[in-house]
UniProtKB/TrEMBL annotation:
Residues 3-112 form the Response regulatory domain. It comes from the Bacteria. InterPro entries: CheY-like_superfamily (IPR011006), Sig_transdc_resp-reg_receiver (IPR001789), WalR-like (IPR039420). This is Response regulator. SMART domains: REC. The lineage of its organism: Bacteria, Pseudomonadati, Pseudomonadota, Alphaproteobacteria, Sphingomonadales. The modification 4-aspartylphosphate is found at D53. Keywords: DNA-binding, Phosphoprotein, Two-component regulatory system.
Amino acid sequence: MRRILVVEDDALVAFDNEYGLNDAGFTVVATVDTAEDAGQRIAEGGIDLVLADVSLRGEGTGIDVARLAFAAGIPLLFVTGQCPAEARGFAAGCLAKPYSRADLLAAILAVEARKSGRKARRLPKALHLFGD
């Protein structure tokens, strides 16, 4: 999971995530703040993981983005203040805000491990993987 789409409406959080992910060796394919823009990027392909807040600008929510990512076979990890229980069937999990850069990276590794059939080494306290 090297190519990540960041879907976040808070510019400061989006910038921090993008900077931290790039610094850790990931490629942020795009950072968008609407469900519509996220849907267009997902349709273009080339994404290994979507990180999405639930609340977004404009029409649609992160839950809508999760459905689109699921349909495209792309795991989505919510990074949000309120974990949406109704998304359990089509999202990988939820990392609760506020979170540290280390917790974000550990959460990504946990999603990657689960997708590969391995057990994650360290789960941040703020991470809830769906399906547990």
